[in-house]
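cron nightly-structures :: item 1 of 1
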Amino acid sequence: MSVHSARVTPVVTALARIRLVSCLIFSRFICFWLIFFWPIVFGHSAQAAYSNYNSVLIGSQAAGLGGAYTALYRDSSAVAFYNPAGLAFATDSSASASATVYKKFDTKYGDLDQFTTASLRVNQGFFRGVPTASGSVLTYDKLNAAFSIVVPDYETFGGEIRSTASSVSLLNILDESLWVGGGAGIRLSDIRPELPHEIAVGVSLYYTARNLSRTVRERIITNGAEALVMSEEKNILGNAIVAILGVQSATSEEKVGSWNWGVSFRLPSLQINGTGSYFKSVVNTNPFSSISENHPSVTTLTKIPAKLTLGLAWFPKEEWTISVDLSGYEQVSYRDMTDPGTEADEIHHRTVANINVGLERPLTKWLTLRLGAFTNLSSHDEPSESPLLRSGDRIDQLGWSANLGIETREHFIFTFGGYYTGGRGQSVQLLDQTLARVPKSQQVFTMLVGTSFFF
């Protein structure tokens, strides 16, 4: 043995021991969180913008599989979000991005049309480029890392809540979130080859920003003349840090009849900042009177709920994939504005579970079909018949997805397809200066385009 080899061997051994100890500590940390802190986390309140957790599907391949991606890893735009442990099984560096080039909301309040007629109105939507996910994976020896940008929460509406001969109520709302961060994953079996299974652990860290803008206008007409005009504006901007821990058992070569499993745990978020504003004015012309409230700077709450997901993936035939995810979310209660004098929304997130199912199969050597189905249950309770405060909408939804993966050239995959989610339920809105429960239906049609490059 050469002198150089003799010097290098102790260094390599020391590095291997350090990696092994780090991975063992990390894996025990995950188990510690899942076993000990899970009841504590789900017994305390946290705040979030979410009403329906599966309204936005992340990634290209992952979206085609209906969001059932906790036990899979090839979609670099989604793996850090669903389960960062999957990063460890990437064999090539890659980059991918998906954009909802056509997102159409069909939302109705009050007297609802036949639910099945919404599909006939799909051509009445508008083009909105919302980049739901982009990411890149870099492979380095045994430790792989990723950069990730995702939009997991997005809702918009502009139009009438109610319109009669004597009054009209208008609502404009935009509620969206942006997450920017990255993750890393490492295989324990790379450090300890004697392990019977290939198991990996990973962690993702996101910096998040939530933006809510809501404007309400109401006009009441008496004897043909405008008698009362009400205007309300509310804005919330919040920032937080979110960490996701993951464990996955998989293989970089998916064999016929083999199984993958994965577990991911999204910890309660750490709030960094929460600010907002609130304005309301009421003008009555008969007799004349004017009342206004102005709160240009108020404190708001922005946190993301904890989430535990269990995932399985089965490969029944060559290049076939069947995947299933089961996710549970915590129960929370809060008011989104804490300053006195502001009309805060009373939000209660109930404990809720969703299931995602996906199928991927090749049609030709260069064309792959992906299909998915998922529940999108509301996290809110049924609104009171006589509400005193605004509360979240209760609209339980179902969804499905489909897209095609087209390998246009070696190492390059183009994705085209979309997904749908919809349901009907109840909402709390301001009508005639009084909060009231009104029926609401919502259906969202999304056209998805994505690209992936492996190098």
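cron nightly-structures :: done
Confidence is low (pLDDT under 50) at residues 1-48.
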